Amino acid sequence: MLKQLFKFKGGVKPPTNKTQSTTLPIAGAPIPSRLVVPLHQSIGGTPRPVVQAGDTVLKGQLIGEADGWISAAVHAPTSGTVVDVGMYVQPHPSGLDAQCVVIEPDGRDQWIAHAPFDYAHATPDAVRHYLQQSGVVGLGGAVFPTHGKLTASKTVPMDELIINGAECEPFITCDDLLMRERAEDVVRGIGVFRDLLKPKKVLIGIEDNKPEAAAAMRAAVNALGEQFLVVQVPTLYPAGGAKQLIRVLTGKEVPASKRSTDLGVQCFNVATAYTAWCAIATGQPVISRLVTVSGNVQAPRNYEVLIGTPMGELLQLGQPHPDTDGIVMGGPMMGFLVPNDTVPVVKATNCLIAHSERLFPPKAPEMPCIRCGACAEACPHELQPFELYWNARARNFGKTQEFHIFDCIECGCCSFVCPSRIPLVQYFRFAKSEIWAREREKNAADEAKVRFEFKQYREEREKAEKAEKLAKAAAAQAAKKAAEAAAIAAVESPPETPAPAPTEATGNTPLPAVDPAQDAKKAAIAAAMARAKAQREAAQPKNTETLNADQARELADIEARRQQAGIVEARTAVPPPSDAATQKAE
Amino acid sequence: MSHYLFILVGAVLVNNVVLVKMLGLCPFMGVSKKLETAYGMGAATTFVLTMATGASYIIDHYLLMPFGLEYLRALSFIVTIAAIVQMTEMVIAKTSPTLQQTLGIYLPLITTNCAVLGVPLLNISNGHNFIESLLFGAGSAVGFSLVLILFAGIRERVEGADVPVHFRGAAIAMVTAGLMALAFMGFAGLDKYQ
Amino acid sequence: MDILLAIAIMALGAVVLGAALGYASIKFKVEGDPLVEKIEAILPQTQCGQCGYPGCKPYAEAIAKGECDINLCPPGGMEGVQRLADLLGREVKPLEAEEKPKQVAIIDENTCIGCTLCIQACPVDAIVGAAKQMHTIIAQQCTGCELCLPPCPVECIRMDTLTENIDNWKWKFPVIKIKPEARQAAPLEDAA
User: Fold this and answer.
1) Is the ipTM, as predicted for this complex, more than 0.90?
2) What is the CA radius of gyration of chain C?
């Protein structure tokens, strides 16, 4: 079947370096010495840990509960003991740490009890919930929780479901081998997505440097009787970018302000489809993924690796050459050097490249920009990298946003072609993080202003209420006094000094007239004091049921001292500690 | 018709009031740091200059010349211009306070803009009639705005560039203005083709 | 005679123009001062009072009136001074007080006596608590103004500097080394 393909502007053709790692089939990586499983492995909320140090876990047991809708659960990759739930260095360019669950494997690799998901009878919402609980996230690199992308837009019907098997970045071949060896499971997974989204067409995009993978996928599609279309797209970096692949296969250009579902398109990676199907078919959550080990190694190959495997241990399987001086996570265009070799493999890790100066000669220092425009020609999003560069350099972040810096996918095409060897993507990353930081500050400042203004309003209101109350009380008091004085004046005989106006000071009034008022006042005061006293006596210490012996003794001493000082009358002794308290005594 | 066209082209490009006649350099240097202020200043000056040329022509032909008071030209022009600028300032303050803030002190300084006084005087020395005066005035104002906007655009870019320390700020701006003036010399003779 | 005519004409012109201007000044009168809002939008809303004014709005008003300088706000940092200078066309001056990294206050719960004095002092109501109940500071809402530290009678509040974590980590400005590494063989470098 001929399919008309579209082109996207820009793109580069770096040497692919893929043949090294496609000669051997996928191998299973052995269980490492320990597993460091980060809790936050997807975009969105950080899962909450549900285990603690000392717990025994089985393979596939939930260790991190999804927090919110955009979040995916995390599971134990093998059976063993939880050694620690703490902060460990992450495979992140910053080298900062985040919360991880460290598991020491017991070697038995024992699965938790699990059963295939009843897909045939499940509602779409149930399927999505199940995928979230199984930890299915996008394995193309963005690790977006897949269930969040499986709801069709209410307003725009889904035209095309695109499955991304392009794998355009050099060195990486995990999707290639996945399609070659496990095509049927991939196609079944695509079927699940098709059922949930109900598109008119399903297109599987594979670059034309992967003929075996395309053939395997076609065979699987035919064997399962599906109507999916396997399309080979021209090999060009970054044809595997979501917006680029959508453009090539459907001709639609997704603008920055819209999501692809607004144009009736959704895009998933082949590996995501595969893990979704595995979770449904076998009931096993996501605990491993395919990782290409390549670069400065003697035996480059694809491995099925447990999430949480330390990268150094994984790299050893490829037998790195002695001059290896670092590990790159990802490909040479978009990857980064990990802080050290103990960082774990996470769901986003698609490739480990052993770095050496021989293989990746250090870049010559940056030279001034000559405004040649090669970067603008290479940009797949038709941006102007040199404008972004000048403005990011000058810290003119408003102008960078005018030039659409947030459309940049950091693919690295511009840095690749720059004749002055300027690391353009680093400048863009700097500008983006500065803009985000400023936005956070501005939001915090706006919130603070709102709270400040509310506090001022609240204080005014309280003052006004207090003044009102005082005025009312004073008026009531005055009225009461007037009534009393009038009553007394009516009772008393005229020759006596006339009853004074109620507003005069009490000292002027003759004694008998004031006494009842003062007596009433005194009585009220005495009643109030008695009330307060009763309240004090009623206010027993509240948390005395779970005291241990030492605390009870201390309290008794304090009570004795207070009685001696005469602060308080002897009251009922503090109840003795209950049995429960003594049990918990440490 | 072509005569009027040549007057217009001459005023905008050939005899550009800033880069060829070297008038109005103060706002040219002062307001061209940002493109937004340049737009605003250009618009304000266009309005003032056009009004000023029209008013000056009327005053000169119907008030000064009949009574032989040509020696009061400069004085009366300045007074008229000052009044027009005040009016413009008030209108801008009412309609666009942001523009007033961004232009700042340069709005009332249009009064002392030698271009705004120079163009009416040039009109008289060139012997233009009313239509020609208006065209010349409007054209000069458009030329002023054009150069101001171009210069502001260049200055914004130069600010982010690697300028040697001692050249930063006013120095590189002057150099740029000089280069632009050289460039505008290329228009010489364009309005003489009769 | 001529001179009188000249004076008369000039006077006529002046009167006409003056009348026109007077009319315009009444018709185009502008109320309020939007500049204050713009200045306030630049200030960091910490309401700490370190500038000497009781809050960010009074400081903004003072700047708009021209009563004070633009470099009195430490939480805004040099960037705030720069933005104010850009807005107002004034020159950039270094900050009067030193610039401190962003801090939040934290109450030592073992020492707190529940007196509510800090709650009354906080300008953004970021402290939760009641009389004789535990007080605690909501870290996300604390602006680091330090107004709660003096009133506390048991000095149980301290300031914690915010550290970088993966969520708020920023990429650094790319710095490229141009100078080649000093050669090992050159003894002069070691001596120097």
Assistant:
1) no
2) 29
